[in-house]
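Tokens in:
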């Protein structure tokens, strides 16, 4: 029995909140810890066209892959939920670059409000860039990771991480290449969205996320965090749970609606996830990973960079054989929120925050949920 209780970055199968699967007891929070916001409709897998035994095999694979939790949702109903190791329904954890996909949603909401347009120059709010080569960088460039801002593994995974004021550090980097000419998984460039969102909305991103995204979705255990200078972190740092992230995935599956309420426009969801945002990386939308086949550049690679060694670059898709409409929010250690519009499923998987080492459980494994669908 499992205790009740991840680059190609991290993936988690989110879905629903715990029904009985293959003889396991239902996973549920005590009534005192179960606010209404957590009330998923929990169903037997067969009632939503999923095979319980196939889900159990997926859970076994997730457990062997050092996961903390796994959730599977179909048609908005929680068909399976498992916790391993230290994982618990109410235990939040760092989800690393899944934070980036939330940053994308915040930009989309701000654009829906008319507070910004993604073709605006970021220098509208980042005044330090005015009169410099960075003045031409648009919000779209920052979302697409083709801004041309200075990038290196030493900067992104060293100096940025140790900076007390991560926003100031990121803004102060140089413009290495013209926008649109190089793709890099650029943590520092994404962090500058902190200044953009604050200037455009008049709120810091922590408050904006709470009032416009987390609270409406009932993501009661989720928060963005701040650096040591009090700046909201845009590229990492979000704390969340398997259940909360399942809500995020379901929002995307619902084309931006939740409980009959419009949270973000369907146009934004489609623009972020249905097609590549740049010709330089077919696997990338607006801070969401796509299952498109073509040039796939991973998180430790950069087109045209001297120090990437070609790491993570190939001509396949992230999950070969899975639908090309599938997409993910991914974070270090295979933190994962998988959304597949075709099968109407959401999978969330969370695990330790470290570089995946076999055995692990990543996007291609999470795509195995399709094998549980009863034809």
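Residues out:
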């Amino acid at each position: 029995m499992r205790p009740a209780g991840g680059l190609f970055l991290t993936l988690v199968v989110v879905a629903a909140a715990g029904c009985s699967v293959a003889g396991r007891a239902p996973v549920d929070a005590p009534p005192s810890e179960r606010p209404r916001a957590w009330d998923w409709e929990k169903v037997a897998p067969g009632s939503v066209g999923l095979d319980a035994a196939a889900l159990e095999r997926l859970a076994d694979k997730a457990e062997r892959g050092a996961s903390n939790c796994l959730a599977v949702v179909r048609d908005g109903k929680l068909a399976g939920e498992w916790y391993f190791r230290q994982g618990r329904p109410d235990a939040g954890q760092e989800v690393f670059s899944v934070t980036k996909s939330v940053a994308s949603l915040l930009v989309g909401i701000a654009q829906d409000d008319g507070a910004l347009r993604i073709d605006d120059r970021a220098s509208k709010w980042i005044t330090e860039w005015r009169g410099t080569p960075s003045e031409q960088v648009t919000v779209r460039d920052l979302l697409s990771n083709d801004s041309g801002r200075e990038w290196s593994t030493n900067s992104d995974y060293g100096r940025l991480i140790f900076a007390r004021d991560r926003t100031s550090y990121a803004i102060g980097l140089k413009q290495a290449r013209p926008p649109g000419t190089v793709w890099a998984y650029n943590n520092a460039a994404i962090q500058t969205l902190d200044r953009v969102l604050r200037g455009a909305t008049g709120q810091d991103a922590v408050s904006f996320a709470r009032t416009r995204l987390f609270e409406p979705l009932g993501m009661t255990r989720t928060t963005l965090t701040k650096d040591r200078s009090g700046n909201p972190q845009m590229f990492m740092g979000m704390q969340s749970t398997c259940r909360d992230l399942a809500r995020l995935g379901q929002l995307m599956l619902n084309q931006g609606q939740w409980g009959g309420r419009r949270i973000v426009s369907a146009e934004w969801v489609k623009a972020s996830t249905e097609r590549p945002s740049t010709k330089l990386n077919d696997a990338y939308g607006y801070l969401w990973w796509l299952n498109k086949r073509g040039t796939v550049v991973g998180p430790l690679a950069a087109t045209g960079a001297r120090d990437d060694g070609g790491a993570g670059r190939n001509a396949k898709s992230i999950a070969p054989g899975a639908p090309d409409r599938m997409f993910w929010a991914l974070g270090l250690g295979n933190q994962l929120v998988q959304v597949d519009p075709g099968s109407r499923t959401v999978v969330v998987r969370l695990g330790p925050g470290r570089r995946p080492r076999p055995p692990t459980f990543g996007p291609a494994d999470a795509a195995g949920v399709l094998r549980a669908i009863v034809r």
